Amino acid sequence: MYDGGKIIAGLAVFVLLFTFPFWYNIGNAAYTKPKLELPKDAKECVEKTEWMRAEHMQLLNEWRDEAIREGHHTYKNMVTGKVYKKSLTKTCLKCHAQKDKFCDRCHESLSVHPYCWDCHVAPKGDK
Amino acid sequence: MLEKAIKGNKLYWGWLCLLLAVSGLGFLAYTVQMKEGLSITGMSRDVSWGFYIAQFTFLVGVAASAVMMVIPKYLHHYQAFGRVLILGEFLAVAAVSMCLLFIVVDLGQPQRLFNVLLHPTPNSILFWDMVVLNGYLFLNILIGWVTLESERKQVPPPGWIKPFIYLSIPWAVSIHTVTAFLYCGLPGRGFWLTAILAPRFLASAFASGPAFLILLCYIVKIFTKWDPGKEAIQSLAKIVTYALIANLFFLGLEVFTTAYSQIPDHMLHFKYLFFGLDGHYTYVPWMWVAVIAGLSAVLILLFPKNRQADNVLAFACLLVFLSCWIDKGLGMISGGFVPSPLEHVTEYIPTKLELMVTLGVYAAGFLILTILYKVAVGVKKEVGA
Amino acid sequence: MKSTRRKFIKIAGMSALGWSLCPALFNGSSRAAGHNEGHSEEHSGSSANAHGHGVRWAMAIDTARMTDEIMQKCIEACHSAHNVPHINNKQEIKWIWPETFHHLFPGQMNDHFHTNEFPERKALALCNHCDNPPCVRVCPTKATFKRPDGIVMMDFHRCVGCRYCMAACPYGSRSFNFADPRKYLKESERTLEFPTRTKGVVEKCLFCYERLAEGKQPYCVEVSEGTIYFGDLNDPHSDVRKVLKERYAIRRKPELGTSPCVYYLI
User: Fold this and answer.
1) What domains, with CATH codes, occur in chain B?
2) Quick count: other Cβ atoms within 10 Å of Cβ B222?
3) What pTM does this model have?
4) Residue C113 region, left (φ>0) first, then alpha (ψ -120 to 50), else beta?
5) Which fold has domain C57-265?
6) Theoretical Cys-Cys bridge with B265: which of B176, B190, C98, C266, CB 3.0 to 4.6 Å?
7) Least CB-CB distance to C163: which of B48, B127, B130?
8) Where are the domains of chain C?
């Protein structure tokens, strides 16, 4: 093969670089689900826990559009019909009062950085 | 064809490196702006648009001016422009690119730029401006590239490109008209609230754009030893002359209407720009330079002898460019904001960082321009045109 | 055949009556609700248009009784409740601020007369919540929009910071966050009740829509010692309507056709 050595070496470098994230993480502790501080005086969330885990970002997006753009301020649980005010700080953070030990802890472990806190003020200091 | 852009002499590469360095510096300044917000600019609550939007406005005009060669060439079969048309089209590409960059650097939340597409709002002129500018960019890249490619193959351009070329004529007019509509549809801003704003914009565009193109032709001639052709330059010079006269005439109309009607809402802005208001005079010398440069350029260009002398013509074109740039790139936007609708006088003076970002955008635009011109001239020389 | 025709006519007549009555009933009740209990939760979403039906919020400022101290109190109440930062330069942010008549009503103040009383009298300037707002017309993302109850709203989540609305506003009512507002807002000064803003978005007075939703009056009205009237312009018995009937009032730049909903009582 014409210049075979160079091609193979090049390929090897490419493969190494391409799989770098895997190499890099070898030896790091496997991902552990962070310990979340759940509200003490409430048993259930706005919706079912699993649903919340997966859908809370969409829910919040809908809430803010509906609250601000349409003037609809109340949300009904899809199953029980329990009513909540559509508000980030006045609903979510009333129960999940320790944002740093709940929202942030989970987000940080997943490297998600919602920009909401540039404006919304969480109780007990921010960021 | 792009391979032509990577074969050049030391001067070419040096120039590219310089442009890269300047745009890099501009980018650095922009990162400061990203971090600190637009607080690093000289803009204020009262003057909420500044240098960026002014340059944007000016460059839309430069971009639109390509049409002044497309019309003679394609509607009147004036062949002398065939040689240089590609330079006009590529200038339009570079100018529109700069326009888009200026819009982005002017946004407070550039990461949300796509909201304009996610929530299209046809009642906003800014929405239409975005549509026509992107359309114009696309049209000029397409037309420029296809015609240049067929020239290289020494075949006539394919038939399907014709409709695009014809479309580009009203489209060019539209970009500057819509840009004028951005301003002239605002109640409470007397300086812009005039139906003649769009024609005035077009006239100054058709003066400054071709003037700049003449200068570019001379530069190309000096550095590439390829001659764009005397006749094309002479015809461009005539266009500049007519357009400049129209521009000054329109300015005169504007001044008459405001000065004779004496409605303060309209008059105070002119007063501020040309005589100063409440002890603020920063723009006065600039505006007079613009007027005097414009008038002297007309006096020079009116005489065919002057136009035929390359040095004199180049000097006159510089004057035209300067005049139009001050008028639109400096006075037009600040003038509209001062005094404010509450008749407060807050002056706007761009900051150093703001000027660096501006310079960076210009450097990026010239980078695009240089590369495109390199390709175009390379092809021209190859086929011996 | 005969009986069915009669029946048809009867039904048609009844439904015609129904058509004409129903909207009136509906409107009457919703207006009463809007007036008596302030503002019901879902109201702003469901109320009809700004002219003649549903609620149309408006304000009347009594310039004769307004004093500098009251103005300061109004400004303080509004700005601290909405986390408006104190920036002391030309990139300042203000939702409501004092302005002399000369500037509020440029060209309208007979400045050349020997009396300076009117040109130098001060009153509060704020967003006019126009019926025909130029800022809404120009916004390329619908980040500022008009609610059915007349409030010109801002959606801070959507604003791209192009500042076209600031160029369009003939009243200078809009401010832009040139810098991060939290730099100018000490943590101790911040209220948890309302978000701050972030750099790069435009903001302005929102007629305290969040308080109206709870049936309360705007902050400035509350502390104004009765010098600001607020209410539903479509309700002949509201405070604003009553005072507008009795006193002479002017609006800012009426010739522009924006139709402001902030009135100045002379």
Assistant:
1) 2-384 (1.20.1630.10)
2) 8
3) 0.88
4) beta
5) Alpha-Beta Plaits (3.30.70)
6) B190
7) B48
8) 1-44, 57-265
